[in-house]
Design brief:
The protein has 205 residues and is mainly alpha-helical. Helices cover 81% and strands 0% of the residues.
Length: 205
Amino acid sequence: MHASQLTLYIGAVFILAIAPGPDNIQVLVRGISQGRMAGFVAACGFAFGVIFHTTIAAIGLAAVLRASPVAFEMIKYAGAAYLFWIGIKSWRSGSLSVAGNAPKKSLWLVFRQCVIGNMLNPKVTLFFLVFLPQFVQKNGPSPAIQMMILGGIFMMMAFLVFSTIGIFAGTVGAWLKRNPKAGVWLDRLAGTTFIGVGLKVAFGD
């Protein structure tokens, strides 16, 4: 890829990563409700999910999702239900907020939830199928290899942007936690956000 094309690709990825969307909104909420480390780990989880979507797009299985409305709808609603379930748990048990940074066990849970939530969004897979080939060079290596490289760049950019959001949100959350009642409302904010994102995934265009 020529330097000008690489610059264009990185610029496009940066804009996509920073534009408000389900992933970075969840990173923001995680950071506010659970602390800087949780926001950082959430960023790692969503960035890691890029590997899955890139691989699926590179080997062409995304085309199957696009050709099979039933498979697409099943995965979409499974992802929406998962996010909805996380939101309900937050409202009922207050499991998301902690005093300070989340413990290691909770951080692993954050990472796992973010990876699974990302993987269960077929719209992301289809996006990668459409977006990455635009930057594949005809005279370059195997298209699949090029798409994996492009996906790797996307993952690094997403991680940089999302982790910055998560750490900043954690700082805001630490300030909010000085109010003893803030934890309850932070849990409710997080739960409402997850439920809203789940509904958006299920019924959005």
